[in-house]
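Can't attach files on this board, so I'm pasting raw text. These are the components:
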Amino acid sequence: MERDVFKIAENVYWVGVRDWNRRLFDALIPLPRGTSYNAYLVVGSGGKALIDTVNPGFENDLEEKIHVITSLEEIDYIIMNHAEPDHAGAIPHIMERAPKAKLITTGRGARMAQIYYHVPQEKIRVVGDNETINLGDKTLLFIEAPMLHWPETMFTYLKEDGILFPCDFLGAHLADGVYSDEVEDYIVHAQRYWSEIMMPFRSMARRALEKIANLDVRLIAPSHGPIHRKPELILNAYRRWAAGEASRKAVIVYVSMWGSTDRMVKQMAETLMAEGVKLAFHNLTIADIGDLAKDLVDSRAIILGAPTVLGGAHPLAVYAAYLFKALRPPTKFAAILSSYGWGGAAVRHIQEMLKDFKIEVVGALEINGPPTEEDMKKIVELGKSLASKIKGET
Ligand code: FEO
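---
Top answer:
Structure tokens for the assembled complex are below.
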């Protein structure tokens, strides 16, 4: 059998597709290595189930891959773990060609299937938490996992083989790789993916991790990126990230128009590094937003640098502050650095944006024009205070 329809366990097949050239997700998230839409076919002695489908545009690829194993007419169930079109977009195409197939989803998923994919109600079977479907020698167990990544989301667990199909959860945007332990920098991409998709829902992630803790999980088959045949590696990383465990690390995020803010944040960078703080540095004019989000996962502090322009903070800094709040990282401390030409407003603007976010602003410095020696000394002092907060000394 070709490698592109491969067996992950006895009578369980990967029938997904790789989107090598996709470079943007949700018109927001950069995908430097593309992504995959993993669908799986489970062939039981008494029934066949397709778990998730693929992104619109790949319907024929999925159909051809299923045909390598079985005909579509023989599919009994289409499991919709998640209604987002990258996994459910091919449902209308497949259901049209799989006349006896019932769509299996949660109550919320049923409404979405009707709205998004016009699946008739009589073709949908709603399953509850811990409900099972019997495929003869294989049993599918459904586990509700709301907000991972939409409200209707569920996981599917194949009992006899110990395979968890968690859709978006425990995935990565990578087109390459079959098994995660074969991909050298897998965990970096998994962390990036976590920050973009799961970090805002940390409490729901913790709940889901508890729910699956007692299952015998031997293989994790997510719907993006490689499969995990050493489940503890990704589960341990998710436990750390979901708990909000941060290290002695700070993220500098800034934009500068004429070099003054640039000099200020670089002084801050030198100070923090001299104090033993690990640093990630992002100039917003060239930053990869996914990389920035990844660095927020395990950082204790953020330093926002922005000049005043048109009566407020530079729009790129406003965008960054907005994203920061939306991603809800576990970051505890902040500092703000700013320079203005004739009227300062950036610091107030950023403080206003952060006011309902639980974060301690350790200090802010707003100066007129390029920084003086005196200003640089103030930044060093602020950097030292911030470093001692990051190191847990104050
Ligand atoms: Fe991969 Fe939330 O869809």
